[in-house]
Amino acid sequence: MPANLRERPTIIIIFGSSGDLTSRKLLPAVYNLFLDNWLPEKFALFGIDRKKKSHEEFRQQMRVGIDQFSRRPIADIKSWEEFASHLTIFHAADFSDPTVYSKLAEELAQKEKDWKTKASRVFYLAIPPNMIETVAQQLRNAHCADESDYSRIVVEKPFGSNLESARALNQMMQKNFKESQIFRIDHYLGKETVQNILAFRFANSLFEPLWNRRYIDHVQMTVAEQLGVEHRGGYYDKAGALRDMIQNHLLQMMCLIAMEPPVSFQDEEIRNKKMDVLHAVRAIPHEQVRNFAVRGQYNAGWIEGQHYPAYREEAGVKPNSNTETFAALKLFVDNWRWQGVPFYLRTGKRLASKVSEVIIQFRPVPHMALSGIAVSDWQPNRLGIRIQPDENIILRFQAKRPGLKMSLSTVDMRFSYKDSFQTNTPEAYETLLLDAIEGDSTLFMRADQVEAAWALVDPVMKSWESTDPDFPNYPSGNWGPESAEILIAQDGRSWLQSPTTEKKHVSDSKSDSN
Prior knowledge:
The chain is an alpha/beta fold. It is about 40% helix and about 20% strand. It is built from 16 helices and 18 strands. It has helices at about 20-35, 55-70, 75-85, 100-115, 130-140, 165-175, 190-200, 235-240, 240-260, 265-280, 290, 415-420, 430-440, 445-465, 480-490, 500-514; strands spanning about 10-15, 45-50, 85-90, 120-125, 150-155, 180-185, 215-225, 295, 300, 300-305, 305-310, 325-330, 340-350, 355-360, 380-390, 390-400, 410-415, 475. Strand 1, helix 1 and strand 2 form a beta-alpha-beta unit. Mean pLDDT is about 90; it is low at about 500-514.
C-alpha cells in the first residue's frame, strides 16, 4: 500500500458542483490529495448541481478548474484519467425535490454494495446560505447520513448573518444531525502558518513563559487585501468586512494566540480552550462601540500604478451603500494571562498591500542601562507571524553594530517556510477536506464557538446599522481610514507591519508618486 493511503472507502458528495468554489478550491484540493495518496483506492466523488451536465462535461469543467487553480496543474494524462474515473455528475433539477435524495441514497448504497463495505460519506454544502436548511433536511429525510460514525456534513461560511440567525441554523442542523457530524469550515484555519501557531507556542519552551501580560504589550492582527470585491459585490454588500472576516477568520486566529496550553491535541480539547478565550473576551457595550470599533469604505485610488474605482461603483453594489470594506476592533481578554493587554484586529479591501499576519509587541526592558547614544535606534522586541504571502516567522531584537563604540541596531531572526522546507505547501482546503474525511474536527468551529463569536460582534453591527457613516473615507491603496489610526494612537501605539510589508509599502508609495 502506498504511503499515506487511507483504508476506509470514501465518497465525497458536493452540492453546488458547478460553482466557483468547487472549481477554484474543492476539486483542486481533492486532486492533490489523490496525487499524494491521501485518498483510499475505493474513492468516489459525486457532483450534484441544478445545472444539467453530462459526465464528460462535468469532468472537463473540473479539469479546467484544476489546471487553472491547483498548486499542481495536470501534467500527466494517465494520472488525470485515473482521477477522473472517480468523478460522477449527479443531476438535481431542484434541491428541494425529495426524489433527488432518494436516488442519491440508492446510488450511495449501490456503491457500498459494489465495494462490499461501508464508506465514509462527506456531504459538502457548497451552496448559497439560503439553501442549507433545505439540503440538510432532505438528506435527513432520505436517511443519507444516519450513521454518525460514517457521515459528515461540511458547511461553508457564512454560518448565519448575526447571533439570532446562527443560533437558528445551529438548532436546525443539530435537529437533523449529531454535532459530531457537523463540520463548519473556516478555510483560514487550514493554512499552514495558522496551524503553526499551535506548534510554535506549545512545542517550544522558549516562548510560552513569555506569552502573557507581564512581557507582552499588545497584539496586532491584520488581514489586508489589495483586491476589491471583484465578482462578489452582490454578496459582499450584504455582509461587509466585520461579518466576512472578523467574526470568523480573525477571531479564530485570536483564539489560537490567546488560548491556554491544552492537555493534548485532541479536537475537543483544542476547541474547549478556544471557547475559554471567546468567553473571556470583554463585551463591547452598545454605547461604547465608537471607542472600540471603527469602519471604512474605499474610494477610488491607485495601487501599483493602476487606478481602481470606488466601492460604490463596483458591480452589484448599491450606489449609496453603507457597507464597510474596512473594520478594526480593540478587544480585551479578561483573564489572568491577558488582563489589560489589548488585541487590535483590522481587515480591509483595496489596502496598500496584501498581507495576513499577527504581530506580538513585547514590553520595553524595565531599565535601559546603555547610554543614550547607544540606544538612539532602540525598538521593543517584536514577533511577527506571517500567514500570507511568503509565510514566515520573524523575531526582531537589538544587536550591537560592528565598530569601536556601543551602538545598537534592530535586526531580524527569520524563519521562512519556503527556504527551510523547500516543498510545495498544501492548500488550506486540502488539510480541511482530509480532516473532514477522517472525522477530525480540531480545525472546524463548534456550535458554541460560532454563537460566541457572533455575540461579540453583534453589538457593533447593531450600532453601525443605527448610524449613517461618512463614506467613502479612505482611498484605494491606503491603509484604511484615519479613524483606524486614531483607535490605536489614543493608546500611544501605532499599526505595525512586518519588515517585508514595510518594504512593499515603500515601493508602492514610490510607484504611486510616479
